[in-house]
């Protein structure tokens, strides 16, 4: 997953788009989860283009909605501040995904 933040790497837009699609499939999601995706996704959410930030949030949402361990890893990595910023200034889809992840985290804390 580190290829997502390699400035010399090409096709980051396409890779994120494909990963966002694949994250909707349970088997593919499991493979993505095994690749330590949180740090590079967080970096994209912080510094990527609007479209890439949107896709990174969609991938993160797919991971966190289905896996408490991924949600804990995301929280431990410090995604909350980046998601709060994205929920205010991202694309409409990015805002929805970021807000939804933050809500999932809030609900997990209350449980």
TrEMBL record:
The keyword Cell membrane does not apply. InterPro entries: ARM-like, ARM-type_fold, Armadillo. It comes from the Eukaryota. Pfam families: Arm. Keywords: Ubl conjugation pathway. The keyword NADP does not apply. This is U-box domain-containing protein. It comes from Arundo donax (Giant reed). The lineage of its organism: Eukaryota, Viridiplantae, Streptophyta, Embryophyta, Tracheophyta.
